[in-house]
Amino acid sequence: MANALQNVRLFVAILAARSAQLASRALRAGGGSTMPGVVSRRVDPTVLTKLSKRLPGGAAAITGTNGKTTTARMVSHILRTANVKAVNNSTGANLVTGVTAALVADSTISGNPRSEVALFEVDEASVPKVAAEAELKLLAVLNLFRDQLDRYGELAYLGKVIASSFGDLPSDGSVLLNADDPLVASLGREARKAVYFGVEDSSLDMGRLQHVADSKSCPVCGVDLKYGAVYMGHVGTYDCPNCDFTGPDTAYRATSVRFDGAKATSFALSAPDGEMEMKIQLPGLYNVYNALAAAAVASEMGVALEDIKRGLEGFGGAFGRVERIQAGEKEAFLLLIKNPVGFNEILRTFVAGETSGAKHVLIAINDNDADGRDVSWLWDVDFEMLAESEAPREPFTVSGIRAGDMAVRLKYADLPVGDVVPDRGKAIKAALEATPPGETLYVLPTYTAMLEIRRTLSDLGHTHPFWEDE
């Protein structure tokens, strides 16, 4: 009798979620990627646990400050290439409600999953809640950078929050950690089984820690770490001169990294099952880390290296993160920004280069809850590197709720500021109109600004709504 009542409750929860999704899209209130999870959890608070237990291959999750969506999309593409049917929260709804909504959408009305496995990107602060309910067999932590301090707090605390979830993983569960991020690597001390990935290429050494480097001290004893190489922010090779903490040995490693401007990147992948040359259609060192993590996740899920190679090399980017959108005779290149380290890497990769430097740039800064209310981080971004660059560029177009703040920051960096258009829809239209045919407009928005700009591009017929993305 009890089981029958539980099944009825699950049935009603899924039915209610279906209705909520249809209503959300019909009313243009969103893509229905979160509300179904909210509704279903109110009807049946155990809906995520029930549905995740029915997945034949279990669930995996990816968390971290930067790269969650791109890495999760990469893994999803690899799984499809390997003919593994997977459900994921592909729209970036990464709280427990979004994870629940994805599983509900994948289930039949009776609660049977259509997919073999689940792959979720999870907000850092939401990891304990998801891990407690979703029976994760694998949890990957990409990096931890200073981001939305008004919401997350300082990094050491956030690391403890994530590590607190390790005990909820099943006995055969494992954590996959970035060995090059000292704080992330130190979390392995709290795990039953830890597997590490990292980059090994001295040619990438920046020579010094950036101003925005966060975890510069040993997470064990607090003494300043000694770096052998700095790749970006506080990520690199390191040792503690005071205790035994050092970068751990890696099971998955990227070497011989080669950049092809703003188009592609190549590297050699070393994994437990062998070695293989990779070429991804995405630029920048941060995407090497994303691809390396994706390869490691897929391999730990049992995918062969050949399928991993085909999946990564066929991947074209995640919506709004690194997304090229053809707009008539012009191209809009969307590059999501959210914190100083990520912004610096985008500037270094796309804007400062003399051969691949962006000439036409729109920066859109919002301070909604999803972006983080505190925009003081803009002063930690190294815009001064652009003033030192010889790359030709037009004055920056600035938009967003905090357009004025962004314009002032650029002025202090002695960079030219053009139009200041707070309205995001009007700004993307004006910036595209000012971009000559055959050239690219680089769009650097915060999260909610990206959604607004992308909606305008969709309304203009240049792309599809984000919830229709793969």
Distance between the termini: 40 Å
Secondary-structure content class: alpha/beta
What's the CATH topology name of the largest domain? UDP-N-acetylmuramoyl-L-alanine:D-glutamate ligase
Put simply, the count of helices is: 16
Low-confidence segments, ≥5 residues, pLDDT <50? Answer: none
What strand line-up does the widest sheet have? Answer: 2-3-1-4-5-6-9-10-11
- Give the class-level CATH name of the largest domain: Alpha Beta
Task: Please count the beta strands (DSSP E, at least 2 residues each).
Answer: 17
Domain tally:
2
> What does the overall shape look like?
globular
> Mind telling me the C-alpha Rg?
22 Å
The percent range for helix content is 25-40%
Describe this structure in words.
The chain is α/β, with parallel strands linked by helices and 470 residues long. Strand 5, helix 9 and strand 6 form a beta-alpha-beta unit. It contains 16 helices and 17 strands. The longest helix is centred in the first third of the chain and has 25 residues. The protein has a 9-stranded mixed β-sheet, sandwiched between helices. The chain has a 6-stranded mixed β-sheet with strand order 12-13-17-14-15-16, with helices on both faces. Strands 7-8 form a two-stranded antiparallel ribbon. The chain has 2 domains: 312 residues, UDP-N-acetylmuramoyl-L-alanine:D-glutamate ligase; 147 residues, Protein-Tyrosine Phosphatase, Chain A.
